[in-house]
Design brief:
Layout: H1 10-35, H2 42-76, H3 91-139, H4 147-175, E1 183-186, H5 187-201, E2 206-210, E3 216-219, H6 221-238, E4 244-252, E5 255-261, H7 296-306, E6 310-314, E7 322-328
Parallel strand pairs: 2-4
Antiparallel strand pairs: 1-3, 4-5, 5-7, 6-7
Helix pairs in contact: 1-2, 2-3, 3-4, 4-7, 5-6, 6-7
Pfam families: HAMP, HATPase_c, HisKA
Organism: Actinomarinicola tropica
Protein name: Signal transduction histidine-protein kinase/phosphatase MprB
């Protein structure tokens, strides 16, 4: 800790430095007058002693500014910047801590950008490689163009198309390029429709809906449907065949609480937040064709945040996972 770090005002620190310099000058003049030091020598002695005393203090006061300048130059040149020393409690210390927080956020954004490029490359390369290998076999006559083979190729193409669509959708949400159209949304019919769509794609999984009559919320109906559909799709994908996926909704004060429960392997507590990151999968073994794109829950969080709500993973007794979404209830009286 530097000498004046405990003082909370930079103006008071400068005042102390000035007072010290003046006091040194007065002390040297008094001593010089009593010892007979020539009057023209006294200013040089005063300045030398004052500089020797106040320079370390002033340097300690401004060192965070020099560190921030160096860090800014590193960031501008694309180099990683080190942490800023911010032990001071004054305005410069507050600025240094804010700058350090910004630097940390920039490092995290840069890490996410690198991860995104690597993940997109991997996720696109996998189906493209499978398509290329199959097409080469068909062209070379190694494998006949049978309906089963073409069906596999179609599924890979659909997976590519779905992933690109989700990436574009997520980019629009993050950039604000996808406007919201909030209005009253009756939750019962919306949940029933999303469950019916899930049953069409996965007839082996039973999807049940429990929702009080008349329960409604304020939001964009298309986006709310997207949230529910993504959560149900995720639950169905991770549930064993023949198991049940439950969709429940209740009013809790001025909020609506929506829960999607499955009987899958669940999500470890230490990964409960990371599952909402792009391309993150709690079950690494599902990164191939058996898993999703890794974008569904990221889209869910963005949409819920835009509605002023919250989405989280909640623990439940026994196996399975419970995804809970909390959104503002509808304040409009139906006509």
């Amino acid at each position: 800790m530097r000498p004046l770090d405990r003082i909370r005002s930079i103006k008071l620190k400068f005042s102390i430095v000035i007072v010290v310099a003046v006091a040194i000058s007065a002390l040297v003049s008094t001593i010089g007058l009593r010892t007979g030091i020539p009057i023209w020598v006294r200013p040089f002695i005063s300045a030398t002693i004052a500089l020797a005393v106040t320079y370390p203090i002033a340097r300690g006061m401004t060192s965070p500014l020099r560190e921030m300048v160096a860090a800014t130059e590193d960031l501008a040149a694309g180099r990683p910047a080190g942490p800023i020393c911010s032990t001071s409690r004054d305005e410069v210390g507050e600025l240094a801590r804010s700058f350090d927080a910004m630097r940390t956020q920039l490092d995290e954004v840069d890490r996410q950008r690198r991860d995104l490029v690597a993940n997109v490359s991997h996720e696109l390369r996998t189906p493209i490689s499978a398509l290329r290998a199959t097409l080469e076999n068909i062209v070379d006559g190694v494998e006949p163009a049978e309906p089963e083979v073409l069906q596999v190729m179609l599924r890979q193409t659909e997976r590519l198309s779905r992933m690109v669509a989700q990436l574009l959708d997520l980019a629009r949400l993050e950039s604000g390029g996808s406007p919201m159209h909030p209005r009253r949304v009756d939750l019962g019919p919306l949940l029933a429709q999303a469950a019916a769509e899930a049953r069409l794609h996965s007839p082996d999984t039973e999807v049940t809906v429990t929702c009080p009559e008349g329960l409604a919320l304020d939001g964009d109906p298309e986006r709310i449907h997207q949230v529910v559909a993504n959560l149900i799709e995720n639950a169905v994908r991770h549930s064993p065949p023949g198991e049940q996926v439950r969709v429940e909704a209740d009013a809790v004060g001025d909020r609506v609480e929506l829960r999607v429960l499955d009987a899958g392997p669940g999500i470890p507590p230490d990964e409960a937040e990371r599952v909402f990151e792009r391309f993150y999968r709690a079950d690494r073994s599902r990164s191939g064709s058996g898993g999703g794109s890794g974008l569904g829950l990221a889209i869910v969080r963005w949409i819920v945040d835009l509605h002023g709500g919250d989405v989280r993973v909640e623990e439940r007794p026994g196996p399975g996972c419970c995804m809970t979404v909390v959104l503002p209830a509808c304040t409009e009286v139906p006509t």
